[in-house]
Amino acid sequence: MRFCLGLTGSIGMGKSTTAAMFVEEGCALWDADAAVHRLYDKGAAVAPIAARFPDAVVDGIVDRAALKRIIADDSAALKQIETIVHPLVAQDRSRFRQSAQADILVFDIPLLFETGGDAAMDAVVCVTIPADLQRQRVLDRGTMSEAQFEQIRAKQMPNDEKCARSDYVIITDTLDHARRQVHDIVGQIRTGLAHA
Ligand SMILES: CC(C)(COP(=O)(O)OP(=O)(O)OC[C@H]1O[C@@H](n2cnc3c(N)ncnc32)[C@H](O)[C@@H]1O)[C@@H](O)C(=O)NCCC(=O)NCCS
Ligand SMILES: Nc1ncnc2c1ncn2[C@@H]1O[C@H](COP(=O)(O)OP(=O)(O)OP(=O)(O)O)[C@@H](O)[C@H]1O
User: Function of this protein (predicted)?
Assistant: First the structure.
């Protein structure tokens, strides 16, 4: 039996960093944000995005900076982008699910609960840190303005609710602490698989 583990958390809470720790433990990883990058880079999202937002496509690639400007100016744009992108992301995910070779498949999905994706998982992990640290980490990356960060955060399910709905919560305050929590969760799942 293969175990499907959803990994979620709000923007900047540490999903990608924690996902890499699951890979170190021998899990196979599918990353929703990485799938979006593939779809935007000469992938299947380019034509439908170009049809709706011609200024967002440059040399056959969806330009994320242009997309962020469009979203900042038009509050309905993100919803329209999601309508194009999410079904393509779902196709990419089911291809991975059919072909991946590991006992535990980890799905790093920022909008896991918001899109109802949790129903397809055997368990869900939520990563968390206090809101002030979250803001600091996102702004320190230098890829988003404070307004863009707030716009994305306001669209996501509140962190407390995500944690309450999850089977496991990982506190991403330090790398060592997160690594220990990942190791414990993988151990619990593998013990369960051995007895299944
Ligand atoms: C808004 C965009 C242009 C920002 O691009 P940028 O490279 O600056 O950021 P990146 O893609 O790494 O996203 C950063 C984080 O923002 C959050 N986020 C991204 N898209 C969304 C969204 N539609 N709703 C809520 N949060 C989102 C996630 O936590 C994500 O991890 C880009 O995220 C995008 O095109 N989003 C729409 C596609 C989508 O819904 N992606 C979510 C995963 S399926
Ligand atoms: N356990 C941790 N200890 C210390 N710093 C961490 C930890 N986890 C993540 N970070 C830092 O927090 C920042 C955000 O982490 P990461 O990019 O993994 O978050 P994310 O949830 O994937 O973000 P996004 O939602 O924007 O894709 C990064 O600068 C990362 O180095």
Answer: Catalyzes the phosphorylation of the 3'-hydroxyl group of dephosphocoenzyme A to form coenzyme A.
Nearest partner of 157 among 188, 106, 117, judged by Cα: 117
Is 12 known to sit in a ligand binding site? yes
- 127, HSE (Cβ side, Cα atoms, 13 Å): 32
Tens-level pLDDT at each residue, the chain (196 residues): 799 999 999 999 999 999 999 999 999 999 999 999 999 999 999 999 999 999 999 999 999 999 999 998 998 999 999 999 999 999 999 999 999 999 999 999 999 999 999 999 999 999 999 999 999 999 999 999 999 899 889 989 999 999 999 999 999 999 999 999 999 999 999 999 999 8
Sketch the domain layout of the chain as residue ranges: 1-27+104-196, 34-101
Give the atom of ligand 2 at the shortest distance from the alpha carbon of 177: 1
Q: What are phi and psi of 122, to 5 degrees?
A: -80, -30
Question: Which of 68, 112, 137 is the pocket-test mutation for ligand 2 (most atoms within 8 Å of CB)?
Answer: 137
Q: What is the pTM of this model?
A: 0.93
Q: Is 21 flagged in the annotation as binding?
A: no
- Residue pair 6/123 in contact (Cβ under 8 Å)? The answer is yes
Superfamily assignment of 1-27+104-196 in CATH?
A: P-loop containing nucleotide triphosphate hydrolases (3.40.50.300)
Provide ipTM, 2 decimals. Answer: 0.90
63 lines ligand 1 (CB under 6 A): no
Residue type at 65 in one-letter notation: A
